[in-house]
Amino acid sequence: MDKLQIQGGNRLNGEIAISGAKNAALPILCASLLTDDAIALHNVPRLNDIGTTLRLLSQMGVRHDRAADGTVELCAAGVHSLEAPYELVKTMRASILVLGPLLARYGEARVSLPGGCAIGQRPVDQHIKGLAAMGADIRIEHGFVVAKAKRLKGTSILTDMVTVTGTENLMMAAVLADGRTVLENAAREPEVADLAELLIKMGARIQGHGTDRIVIDGVDRLHGASHRIVADRIEAGTFLCAVGAAGGEIMLRQAAPQTMGATLDKLRDAGLEIETGPDWVRACMNRRPRATGVRTSEYPGFPTDMQAQMMALNTIADGTAVIVENIFENRYMHVQELCRMGARIDIDGHTAVVTGVPNLSGATVMATDLRASASLVIAGLAGYGRTTVERIYHLDRGYERMEEKLRSVGADIQRITREAA
Ligand SMILES: CC(=O)N[C@H]1[C@@H](OP(=O)(O)OP(=O)(O)OC[C@H]2O[C@@H](n3ccc(=O)[nH]c3=O)[C@H](O)[C@@H]2O)O[C@H](CO)[C@@H](O)[C@@H]1O
Ligand SMILES: C=C(OP(=O)(O)O)C(=O)O
């Protein structure tokens, strides 16, 4: 298994190009199931999760071409299987995003239930409840969601909580349904809005995306379209935490600062000097970070996907920060590993109290999930001595060439591949 080896202490200086957002690209790839026509997507990041989704779509009969410049063309004219098998779903929860499109377009789907994962239980009951309200006959059988519907019917759906992939699944189901669907308590995340933008280009009638009430008027068919995936606000935020912890000055290109409000505010509180333009962020850090507490919440609040990275920054801050994780019940797996590097963190339920220490010391640590891995990389860059981050397959699910991007701004970081290890 690949590992990363980091020699801490280098300041980060230079430019990094931000990739397309994983969490926008995944539902958008699945939306290709909604039409027989070709869909051309630009700025698709090269990530393991994207590879898994393309494999999943391929085994259903979706043809795709992937160019080196991040363009992916898909055509679902030859779909012959309406099943998402456990072998693929178990490696990536977002596979559940084929459920809505398959049901809307083919009236049938058999999708393996995703297993429990590192950050929480993550049930899909709201996806099922919404589709059932639209008239689908849905059962759980042998670990699969088995769904059937002649044609889904538009209705009003109020989810019990804000769910990102739930909103996306229901929106993709509703675009081909009979009549109007209203999604109340909808997720406002920029990735949901980006999916809606693609669907509108395909001929869907959607209003209110980006708000908590999305209104969708179903149409009989959708057509081909071309779309550029929005920039990854979490990747950009991760690099900003890295410069916050290691010091230096970086310019992020092809970024979307307008989607990063809560993260930029908190990083400014922590002492980073930040300037933004339409598609760039410049950040400079010349001091010890100030302790900065965060409470995660739905967009536009502070994202749970930035909690671990913000915690890494706080481990070396001046003062004590209180971090509250409100979205996932088990998203503190990085705490134990950060403590192995000398961090002082106490957890009580959803709350972590981080008392900043002057220095972290390099250690061998284990990555347990995607953002936990990123937090360990940040800690390794800021600490003294060598840090080895094991099990980085989690990192490769969601970051494109992270070590190359960090090396290009001066980090001493190497990938040790399985063969060389
Ligand atoms: C591929 C993708 O876009 N992943 C993102 C998406 O995950 P994902 O869409 O899986 O997360 P949700 O927004 O659905 O989860 C929010 C909360 O609702 C709960 N819940 C959700 C659905 C449901 O049917 N029942 C239920 O109880 C979850 O367990 C969680 O506690 O949003 C999360 C929250 O911003 C991010 O951390 C993930 O990076
Ligand atoms: C939790 C994440 O992703 P996923 O929902 O794909 O597990 C994430 O991107 O941090």
UniProtKB/TrEMBL annotation:
GO molecular function, one term: UDP-N-acetylglucosamine 1-carboxyvinyltransferase activity
Pathway involvement of the protein, from the record: Cell wall biogenesis; peptidoglycan biosynthesis
Gene Ontology cellular-component terms listed: cytoplasm
Annotated ranges, domain Enolpyruvate transferase: 6-406
Sites of 2-(S-cysteinyl)pyruvic acid O-phosphothioketal modification: C117
Superkingdom as given in the UniProt entry: Bacteria
Residues that hold phosphoenolpyruvate according to the record: K22, N23
Keywords: Cell cycle, Cell division, Cell shape, Cell wall biogenesis/degradation, Cytoplasm, Peptidoglycan synthesis, Pyruvate, Transferase
Enzyme Commission number: 2.5.1.7
GO biological process: cell division; cell wall organization; peptidoglycan biosynthetic process; regulation of cell shape; UDP-N-acetylgalactosamine biosynthetic process
Binding site for UDP-N-acetyl-alpha-D-glucosamine: R93, R122, P123, V124, D125, Q126, D305, I327
Residues at the catalytic site: C117 (proton donor)
Main location group: cytoplasm
Location in the cell: Cytoplasm
Catalytic activity, reaction form: phosphoenolpyruvate + UDP-N-acetyl-alpha-D-glucosamine = UDP-N-acetyl-3-O-(1-carboxyvinyl)-alpha-D-glucosamine + phosphate
InterPro entries: Enolpyruvate_Tfrase_dom, Enolpyruvate_Tfrase_sf, MurA_subfamily, RNA3'P_cycl/enolpyr_Trfase_a/b, UDP_GlcNAc_COvinyl_MurA
Protein family (similarity comment): Belongs to the EPSP synthase family. MurA subfamily.
Role played: Cell wall formation. Adds enolpyruvyl to UDP-N-acetylglucosamine.
Name under which the protein is recorded: UDP-N-acetylglucosamine 1-carboxyvinyltransferase
Organism expressing this protein natively: Parapusillimonas granuli
Lineage: Bacteria, Pseudomonadati, Pseudomonadota, Betaproteobacteria, Burkholderiales
